[in-house]
Amino acid sequence: MAEDPRSMRERMLAGDPYIADDPELAHDAARARALVQRLDRLDLNDGDGRRAVLTELLGALGEGSEILPPFRCDYGYQTRVGARTFANYGLVCLDVAPVTIGDDVQIGPNVQLLTPTHPLDPGPRRDKWEAAEPITIGHNVWLAGGVIVCPGVTIGDNTAVGAGAVVTSDLPAGVVAVGTPARVVRTL
Predict the structure, then answer these.
(1) In the prediction, which pLDDT does 165 show?
(2) Strands, sheet with 60-61, edge to edge from the N-terminal-most edge strand
């Protein structure tokens, strides 16, 4: 890759290719892992404790929102969660690029929100270059258990995505989508 005076963190935050095992990014990832481990050790009945850890970890956590552990993320600060959103056990949020989750979203168990992309060419991939594309989940969306949302996807408001679906492209507002890849089967 061409010379670029920016740090790898600056490149990542700008949405440009970066080297994933950069020391500055490794420090950020270690911070996130430590906070996630603290979250995992809390009693499930300690909602205030979970909220305190999530508020420290995430870029934003709306009022009345809850994420049940285990929860995994790359950095945390790239994830913003709206108000009254609920994420069940096992949410994986690879937040290399921004992940924006709207208000009143319901996220089933073992959902994956995956922003990273990797070069197809083996040379840059071997050299640890990667990039990412943001994910946006609109308001009042339901992601059923096991849904995978791929890099660069936007899901419109009031949409429901069926269990196990793999969302590879944008979904409009007010639809039901199912399957692999997810396809619209009904308008709400």
Answers:
(1) 98
(2) 60-61, 79-81, 99-101, 135-137, 154-155
Contact 22, 38 (CB under 8 A): no
**CB of 113 closer than 8 Å to CB of 149:** yes
Q: Which ranges of the chain have pLDDT less than 70? A: 1-2
Is 175 strand, coil or helix? Answer: strand
Please report the domains of the chain, with CATH numbers, ordered by start residue. Answer: 8-187 (2.160.10.10)
Residues taking part in catalysis: 118
Q: Strand pairing partners for 79?
A: 99
Q: What is the pLDDT of residues 140-185, one digit of tens each?
A: 999 999 999 999 999 999 999 999 999 999 999 999 999 999 999 9
Q: How many C-alpha atoms does 177 have within 13 Å on its Cβ side?
A: 28
